[in-house]
Predict the structure.
Amino acid sequence: MTAETLATGVGQRARHRFGSADPSLLVLAATSILLVLLIGLPVGWLAYYALTDRAGAATFGNFITLATDPAFTEPLATTLILCVSVAVAAATVASPIAWLIARTDLPARRTIRALMTASFVTPPFLGAIAWEILAAPNSGILNQLWRGLTSSPDPLLDIYSLPGLIFVIACYTTPYVFVLVANALDRIPADLEDAAGILGASRWRTTITVTIPLVVPAILAGALIAFLQAMTLFGSPAILALPAGFHTVTTKIYSFFHFPPKPQLAAAAALPLLVITIMLLVAQARVLGRRGYTVIGGKSGDPRRLALGRFRTPALILVLCVLSLPLMLPYAALLKASVSSFPGAPFTAEHLTWRHINFVFVEFSQTKKAFWNTLVLAVGTATLGTMLALVISYLTARRAVPGSRFLEFLATAPVAIPGIVLGVGLFLAYTRPPLALYGTLWILLLAFLTIELPVAFQQLRSSFHAVHPELEEASRILGAGRLKTLARITAPLLKSGVVAAWCFIFIGVVRELSAAIMLFTANTKVLSVVIYDLNESGDLGAIAVLGTVMLLITFAVVGFANWISGVGSGVRLRGG
Amino acid sequence: MTHLELRGLTKRYDGVAVVDGIDLSVPRGNLVCLLGPSGCGKTTTLRLVAGFVAPNGGEVRVNGQALSSDGYATPPEQRRMSMIFQSYALWPHMTVAANVAYGLTLRGMPKIEAGRRVAEMLGAVKLGAFADRYPGELSGGQQQRAALARALIVEPEILLLDEPLSNLDAALREEMRFEIRRLHDAYRYTTVYVTHDQAEAMTTADLIVVMNQGRIEQAGSAEEVYNRPRSAFVAAFLGGANILSGRAVDAARLDIGPAVLRCAEPSFVPGGEASLSIRYHEVRVHAEGGASDNRLPARVIRQTFLGSLRDLALELADGTMIRASAPPDLVMPPDARVWVDLPSERCRPLPS
């Protein structure tokens, strides 16, 4: 063979290799790069700022400043107290309720589950504001009722306090624990309990020795999520702690951006949150990994329900009382405040008013803009995020490319990035060329995309595991490329999962505050930021109106998701 | 004329060779069966041919053109093959007709023409009345036929079948074996068929390739691999056989300990270690008799009535176990002393 023919041969081979490469490889590469940038850029800048001084020289000075300044160490201690209290409170309240719902003959179980989900999707900052309306020391509705009843000059409750803050955050983290524990209880195969029964254990004994130990990992996991929520929330502490004159870490980070801004300190203060979150998530993986949900994954008939007997009604009343704290009371307060001349006004005709509704929808110039921004961002993020999560979960579930484990890690990593930390990171990353996105909706889109990606990814990954790979291979061998197969076979089969992911992101964006508060400008205010601003100016009536509308949107989307997944399950049934 | 060719095809997972240097030529229009126990590498070989995995070495050639080579595989969608999967992989969100039409639509066939062909194909697999059903509404056998129709309608270059009958019950499996052969005779696509069931292989295949531990043990017609197994593995895996080992006295005789057995085909190396195989049903069992050539005493350990035959486990004087399929009316109580006949023309020397 001459050198020339050899060269031609090589050329043909190369063409063969690359000329026929399917275009989906490009999409895969693009997705990976996008993901790396999405997460790597903000975190990278965060680390850079945390480790440099104003002049840009490397230093540990920021950390030393923080560690020696009581203005930071005190909020840190407060935050730890807050997190532990919330985790304990949420687990203590949610676990028994979950057991009552999943394992006893408590009446109205379905309704209570639905109500728990409702408190799940209530934006925590809205809950905090509603509790302001209820339990602010002077104007709070409950305190006024108390004064009216007892003619005592002192308020019954003071929501502007650490216990008040713990209470409100616990209200809205309880559902996380509830859902995890109730699902775990649902999935315990009846045989495991029967096995104890046949050996002579009574129902109660079985519950204590078999059922409860099996859900301990779920309780721990739930408590952990409650802990992380309490640590990373910005809205509730900003609304309740600042008036009381104390800080948590998140509000402190926010204050570092007040004039004169200290981005180095903010970055340094954000890193501990990141580190603690990662450590806790690793610990959780360890705890769950040891006993695992696989034990709880068995197929079984109906779970055994314990008859409550004469405790049925008292138990129901107790559960409803607990539910009234995150739901009935705050929702009633919001509704009342939106049509009353002032929140604590007596409920009479003369105090009924359209003023707030009129103000919000006619007079207040920011409303329209904020609604529009929120809608654009929610739809945009949900659509982009679902597509991105679809591609990533395809790549990882099918191990389609080398390094898919890395992609999986990247797509889950934002779980460990608190919203406010991400906000700081994005602010630092995109206030400079070449991507000076600060002041545009794009930076908010990036933030929301990053924050919501893990939820959508996990939803779709589990959907993928239910689709047999051979269904895709059958399409490919018949001549459809990867992307065509994804569009024509996989996506329709995943329909309900895709819709659910889209709705999760949509709801998540509508209620997001902690990253938005770092990134908004006058033209890019979203609904949550407007509500926060109105709270600063004390306009509770307008907030109540906006909050009610926000809740209506959220519940409409939840209802739509439920309806679609009902339709989807019909297809699945037919498909066998 | 060779249509599909595998040259030194190798696939390793974590350093372990799952497919270990396979060489195979399949003439156009032939049906070749890859037969072997689970984990022998047959399914991986099929997926290498399909292009779902890229080999670590060797090549897959179709019409003389390499489609897969070391670290590279032309994507499956560009191979103009089709495949029938163990799970059938019918898309649950499409009707039977839509499933079958899918490949034609991808090839840009006009709707009317595609509809006509789909109706024709569904007729050929006897599913004409089920075109508008969803896969979930079909029985196992009907799903199997739908999967066949979907794969056949695109007139594939090569048809691949991955354990297509393993999810069916025994009666249906037998029916579908003949059905697959009938369809193959009708369409004559070059076909690679993976199975662990020897009856399936023998019914359907022109060429049976027995695989074990990632290698080809033997390739040949059903008669060849059954009657002239070239290894103990092939003899035992196909139909079951006694393998007796010992030292060759001369080219035709093997000393297995309690006796010296004569083989009709002399091929031993005198003085060397060697073994021979004899099938269960070729062993004759007599209640009485005396020692003679290839006849030796044994003791009944266990006997099982299986309807058409009686399965006997026998022990020779030195403890060697022999299994025999005797006529069902031959009743032998456990511990009975019997004589076993190992006819010399049935004792096949195994290449060492």
About this structure: The CA atoms of residues 86 and 164 of chain B lie 5 Å apart. Residues 170-187 of chain B form the longest helix (18 residues). Chain B has a mean pLDDT of 90. Chain B touches chain A at residues 50, 52, 72, 74-83, 85-87, 89-93, 102-103, 106-107, 134-137, 150-151, 154, 160 (CB under 8 Å).
